[in-house]
Design goal:
This protein is α+β, with helices and mostly antiparallel strands and 140 residues long. It is built from 3 helices and 8 strands, in the order βαβββαβαβββ. Strands 2-3-4-1-5-8-7-6 form an 8-stranded mixed β-sheet. It starts with 7 loop residues before the first strand and ends in a 5-residue tail after the last strand.
Length: 140
């Protein structure tokens, strides 16, 4: 199995109320560019990735007042939502984490942005931080 020491930070997720305003803000403040904008209907989010070089900032806005993200914003306001680590074998990592006592939100990966597979681990299992794993599609 893959060891956690091979995880790399893929992105930091930031919950926002207005995606267009957030994109403009981050492009101006970081001098970075939008590299992907997508809606994930199943999760009820509009998202945008801002390329910062070695990693990205993911801006997340709810598409519905009933989405988990809308509830997060209502209770906590805009700000850091999660940290995401890229892994080589997401299924193996989920098995390993569960065997080590981590509580998984997703025991099976689900579709993510740009044809990736993602899964979340509860904040209680990662020192209070909502943690996402991502496996990007293999490039040929």
């Amino acid at each position: 199995m893959t060891s956690a020491k091979h995880w790399t930070i893929d992105h930091i997720g930031i919950a926002v109320e207005n995606l267009d305003q957030a994109i403009s803000f981050y492009e101006k403040k970081l001098g970075a560019k939008l590299c992907l904008r997508e809606t994930i209907e199943a999760s009820g989010v509009d998202l945008a990735f801002i390329d910062t070089g070695e990693s990205k900032v993911e801006l997340l806005a709810p598409t519905s007042s009933e989405s988990k993200l809308a509830k997060f914003l209502a209770s906590r306001g805009p700000g850091i939502h999660h940290i995401c680590y890229e892994v080589q074998d997401i299924r193996a990592e989920l098995v390993r984490l569960q065997s080590e006592g981590c509580e998984l939100i997703d025991s099976v990966p689900r579709p993510g942005a740009a044809h990736s597979e993602i899964a979340f681990v509860t904040p209680a299992s990662f020192m209070g931080v909502l943690t996402e794993l991502v496996q990007h599609p293999k490039r040929s």
